[in-house]
Amino acid sequence: MGHRVSYSGPMFAGITHEHCVKAWEMVLPGIVRGAEMGLLRDVMGGMVVLNPADAEGEPLFTAGLGDEGEKYIGWATHKARVAARERTDTSRLRQDFPYLYRAGDIKWPGGLYRGGLALGFSGVQGEYDEMICEWMAAAIRAMTRIEFAGAAATGGPFLGVE
Question: pLDDT (tens digit, 9 = 90+) per residue, 78-128?
């Protein structure tokens, strides 16, 4: 006996591009402020969020800052893919597991892995690249938790089906 799709209650199907856009809009003012304070090199860089269902496929979200945004998106993508492959942050990989690096891997930190969610930022200092990923991951996690809670509180035992 199959499940019939129902659109009567709140739908939740995991992370979406729209979640990433909203998270980025929340994070961006922090990057600007960090540059104003002299902590970050500049307002430049690239953010990438990989699709948890297909980390090797097209990124779920990318955003570039500054004149060389596309270059930084490329580097951020490499950071996110290394973090996804090894299921750990690139700073931890560099510190504790350097033997897992492969020829062709990007050597800078700024890749983050949180329970299936892999992100990368490149453009400022490596430790701040990773901090920006943390902000982005936290925003995505909060939004999806709230949506999941709404969907879980209604209907039957399965998301989006009766």
Answer: 999 999 999 999 999 999 999 999 999 999 999 999 999 999 999 999 999
Q: What is the distance between the alpha carbons of residues 90 and 39, in angstroms, rounded to a whole number?
A: 21
Place of tokens 């909203």: 22
Q: Tell me, what's the pLDDT at 14?
A: 86
- Report pTM: 0.89
Tokens of 77: 């993508």
Cβ-contact 6, 155 below 8 angstroms: yes
- In this prediction, residue 161 carries a pLDDT of 61
- By CB neighbour count within 10 A (0-12 exposed, 13-18 middle, 19+ buried), where does 112 fall? buried
Q: Which CATH number is associated with domain 17-151?
A: 3.30.450.150
Domain ranges of the chain: 17-151
